[in-house]
TrEMBL record:
Signal peptide: none annotated. This is YchJ-like middle NTF2-like domain-containing protein. Pfam families: SEC-C, YchJ_M-like. Transmembrane segments: none annotated. Residues 29-128 form the YchJ-like middle NTF2-like domain.
Length: 162
């Protein structure tokens, strides 16, 4: 029996591609995380989208809107155009892609260059450009680390504004 191909467009079977990530394994590269996030939209795995977004941004995600968009879209494919992940020590990377879908029968596409960061826990996270974290330097970090934001995520979050 032949395994179904992963919806992310990698050409691999889902069991060897995005499925293990959706079940708790962490992405080894930014491209792998990008593809698994697309697959999560296709499969309405909203918790995965939250968990792979930078921890300080997770509280700012509009979960009902993400869920509704994910459900009403007929996903038609992901094309990864470029990524700049060059070595295992790299902590910041971008992935350029085009996502295609139809909504109410109208074809849509979105092209983006997404930013990903590898944090101290060695996990890659998506830096969401639509979620702004408004906090003062001496306030607790919204990622719930217990540290002040200036000693935790402030530098990482400032990268998305560059």
């Amino acid at each position: 029996m032949k395994s179904a191909l992963c919806v992310c467009g990698s050409g691999q079977a889902a069991q060897q591609c995005c499925l293990p990530l959706h079940q708790g394994q962490w992405a080894e590269t930014p491209e792998q995380l990008m593809r698994s996030r697309y697959a999560a939209f296709v499969e309405q795995q909203i918790d995965y989208l939250v968990n792979t977004t930078h921890p300080a941004q997770q509280h700012g995600l509009d979960l009902p809107a993400i869920w509704q968009w994910s459900q009403r879209s007929q996903w038609q494919g992901l094309e990864v155009l470029h990524w700049d992940y060059l070595n295992p020590e790299q902590t910041l990377a971008t992935v350029s892609f085009i996502a295609r879908w139809a909504e109410s029968g109208v074809a849509q596409q979105h092209q983006e260059c997404s930013m990903f960061i590898r944090r101290a826990d060695q996990r890659w996270y998506f830096l969401d450009p639509t979620v702004q974290v408004k906090t003062k330097r001496n306030e607790p970090c919204p990622c719930l680390s217990g540290k002040k934001i200036k000693q935790c995520c402030l530098r990482e979050l400032a990268l998305q504004k560059q």
